[in-house]
Amino acid sequence: MRKSFHEELGDLRKNVLVMGRVVEENVARAVESLLDRNSSLADQVIESDKKIDRMDMKIEQGCMVLLARQQPVAVDLRMINTILRMIIHLERMGDLAANIAQIAKEPTFDHYPSRIIDLFQEMAGLVQDLVGRSLRAFADEDRRLTLSLNDLDKPIDELYHQLIREFGQLHGDEELMNWATTMVLASRYLERIADHAVSIGERVAYLVTGNYADLHIVD
Amino acid sequence: MSAELEIKLCTKNLNFYYGNFKALENINSEIYKNRITAFIGPSGCGKSTYLRLLNRMNDLIDGTLVEGLVEIDGQNIYDSNIDVSELRRRVGMVFQKPNPFPKSIYENVAYGPRVHGVKNKNELDHIVEESLKRAALWKEVKHKLHTSALDLSGGQQQRLCIARVLAVDSEVLLMDEPCSSLDPSSTMKIEDLMFELKLRYTIVIVTHNMQQAARVSDYTAFFLVEEVDQPARLIEFGPTDEIFTRPRDKRTENYITGRFG
Ligand SMILES: Nc1ncnc2c1ncn2[C@@H]1O[C@H](COP(=O)(O)OP(=O)(O)OP(=O)(O)O)[C@@H](O)[C@H]1O
Ligand SMILES: [Mg+2]
């Protein structure tokens, strides 16, 4: 029944792409909701994360059934393995986006240092770009693209550490310090999202080459 | 495939005896229309016996006795007013070893329709072509319809046997280990064919190959004889997705994971 099997596997792959698109969108909307302190947008992200969780479960079940029924081998086996690993990352990225949205719902603080917001915004832009590329690498099974992801993660890490340093130097009233704490968290979530995107890239590289060495671009 | 399940065949409180030997006990099962149902279980657990009950092939064995009901579209096939040859037309059988008649490919397929009264040459030609097409054999044999069926490969002969069943407008295809004498690529052809055929027909397959049951079927029935000389029972029946990812019965789990005995 290889014909229908390949169709089913193709459907699973498409579902991962759809899930990826929702995650990508949620990351963007979470950042936007945080920067604008838009709590209704934040609520949408939190609500939409439940959809991501459902997709995660559905895709995993689909993989289980295909594994049990079709005994996939070679590239088919690697595809299912990749999907199973990818959805873990995507689900976590969705959670992290929801965490950022949760912060967006906390009380606003108007006198924040704009330098921090600038850094945060810059970092968010890079993270979104990285996430988009990791998903495109999967969609196109583009190994070259996966190789660039790790390099793109470096400036994100640097910005993150720079932000932490900036926060460390803040002095002020409780309101400012509370705000800073939530922003440290939000930056940390963004940085984690980028790491997951890099991991997705590694998985895609392994999918394409079948070479386990591709799983450890990052140490 | 429609989401709605229609029962094509079912058995209720079914017992079956070969003479004094009770081979099957209390089998309650449903076979759904336009679905593929696989029977699995260790050798001697009554899969073939049960399959043969579904079109009364066991009638041909002396001293057999059926208790309980076997229904097709709600009608008991063991009723006295049932026309058995009509029943076997509706519920056709494909065997483990391909068994074409020692005649031409054409004659093998045309035989059934002729017996059932089709005389017109054009009509027969049409039925032969259509049946061979549905059995995914037409392209390979259309240029040699009048050569001997015995010259075909095993896999082709098996598809010819399927075409023969389709030629008489069957509704149900019973297949007893149809691939066990075939090589992997012929097997895959038959499996692909089953997938096409289930759009029109109801298929029941007995297979020793657990992977095949997992691959092809929508529903799986697991039969087991728990102690020597005891009758076989239906241990578990359910969607193949579930049977092969989370069977409800420990005995099913032990069997399909190879932890048996
Ligand atoms: N014609 C027969 N006369 C008497 N007993 C029979 C006959 N055919 C089968 N049996 C017995 O009925 C029981 C079920 O046999 P059956 O052939 O249905 O099993 P099976 O599950 O199809 O086995 P296998 O996987 O080996 O084909 C066995 O104990 C067998 O010995
Ligand atoms: Mg048998």
In short:
Chain B: Pfam families: ABC_tran. The complex is a heterodimer of chains A (219) and B (261). By secondary structure, chain A is mostly helical.
Task: List the main descriptive attributes of the protein structure presented here.
heterodimer, A: 219 residues, mainly alpha, Methane Monooxygenase Hydroxylase, Chain G, domain 1, B: 261 residues, alpha/beta, Rossmann fold, six-stranded mixed β-sheet, four-stranded antiparallel β-sheet, 10 strands, 34% helix, globular, binds adenosine-5'-triphosphate, binds magnesium ion, transport (chain B), phosphate transmembrane transporter activity (chain B), nucleotide-binding (chain B), P-loop_NTPase (chain B), translocase (chain B)
Give your account of this protein's structure.
The complex is a heterodimer of chains A (219) and B (261). With 219 residues, chain A is mainly α. Chain A has 6 helices and no strands. Chain A has one domain (2-214): Phosphate transport system protein phou homolog 2, domain 2 (Methane Monooxygenase Hydroxylase, Chain G, domain 1, Up-down Bundle), CATH 1.20.58.220. Chain A is 85% helix and 0% strand. In chain A, α4 (114-140) runs parallel beside α6. Chain A is elongated and about 60 Å long. In chain B, 34% of the residues lie in helices and 26% in strands. Chain B is built from 10 helices and 10 strands. Chain B has helices at 47-53, 84-90, 105-115, 121-134, 138-141, 154-167, 184-197, 210-216, 240-243, 250-256; strands at 7-18, 21-32, 36-40, 64-72, 75-76, 91-94, 172-176, 202-206, 219-224, 233-239. The longest helix of chain B is centred in the middle third of the chain and has 14 residues, at 121-134. The model of chain B has no long low-confidence stretch (mean pLDDT 94). Chain A binds chain B through residues 1-5, 64-65, 68-71, and chain B through 188, 191-192, 194-195, 211, 214-216, 240-241, 244-245. Residues 18, 23, 41, 43-49, 61, 208 of chain B line the site of adenosine-5'-triphosphate. Chain A: It holds the Pfam family PhoU.
